[in-house]
């Protein structure tokens, strides 16, 4: 039996990192993990050793280093292929649980809906790089693009975060479409941290408490 794979998606500033930290404290003591199983938390891009180097290339805000949209897509895909091969699949096959800050649908939202790359091309590439792995449960932490920019107003943005409100609106609409198609659990990220955390935990318990 494989472990469980949980992904948290959403535009920048929605609180993914905070909620993964909350889950990493709660899940090991929740009674859901089998004896000897571990919880692995990871992210994209940058979950593997090679991915950390690719993350630097992808998010570099130097205009002279800006990749084309297609090159950007392929860099994300290379990161994911390595992430699945070296981190996600080995953990799941070991009956461990994996929580990832983003997975393949972020590429569909950002490079597909955001960059206007053909969605079928992206899906075909992802069918290769995901190597059969897909989340057991995906949470979409939903905030408006305006709220996203407000929350990050004092941060130094990376290249993707610097794209501006119109790009972010397209990405956010893409996430909404994907969430509806794939029946994700959608949670308003405008609520306080504890309320969001409790909703995520309740959903995980409802989905997995009888499926250990």
UniProtKB/TrEMBL annotation:
A Pfam match: Thymidylate_kin
Q: Which GO terms describe its cellular component?
A: cytosol
The biological processes this protein is annotated with in GO are: dTDP biosynthetic process; dTTP biosynthetic process; dUDP biosynthetic process
Q: Which Gene3D superfamilies match?
A: P-loop containing nucleotide triphosphate hydrolases
Q: Which reaction does it catalyse?
A: dTMP + ATP = dTDP + ADP
Question: Entry's InterPro entries?
Answer: P-loop_NTPase, Thymidylate_kin-like_dom, Thymidylate_kin_CS, Thymidylate_kinase
- Classification via HAMAP family: Thymidylate_kinase
Q: What is this protein called?
A: Thymidylate kinase
Q: What is the scientific name of the source organism?
A: Prochlorococcus marinus str. MIT 9201
Q: Which gene is this protein's source?
A: tmk
């Amino acid at each position: 039996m494989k472990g469980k794979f949980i992904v948290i998606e959403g535009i920048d500033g929605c609180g993914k990192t905070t909620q993964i930290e909350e889950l990493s404290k709660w899940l090991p003591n929740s009674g859901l993990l089998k004896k000897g199983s571990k919880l692995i938390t990871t992210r994209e891009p940058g979950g593997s050793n090679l991915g950390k180097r690719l993350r630097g290339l992808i998010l570099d805000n130097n205009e002279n280093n800006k990749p084309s949209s297609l090159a950007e897509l392929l860099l994300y895909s290379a990161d994911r292929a390595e992430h699945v091969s070296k981190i996600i699949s080995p953990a799941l096959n070991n009956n461990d649980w994996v929580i990832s800050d983003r997975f393949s649908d972020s590429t569909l939202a950002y490079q597909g809906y955001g960059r206007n790359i053909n969605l079928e091309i992206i899906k075909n590439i992802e069918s290769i790089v995901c190597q059969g792995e897909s989340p057991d449960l995906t949470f979409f932490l939903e905030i408006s693009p305006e709220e996203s920019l407000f929350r990050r107003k004092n941060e130094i943005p990376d290249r993707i975060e610097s794209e501006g409100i119109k790009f972010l609106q397209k990405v956010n609409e893409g996430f909404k479409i994907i969430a509806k198609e794939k029946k994700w659990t959608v949670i308003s990220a405008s609520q306080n941290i504890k309320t969001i955390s409790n909703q995520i935990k309740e959903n995980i318990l409802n989905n997995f408490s009888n499926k250990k």
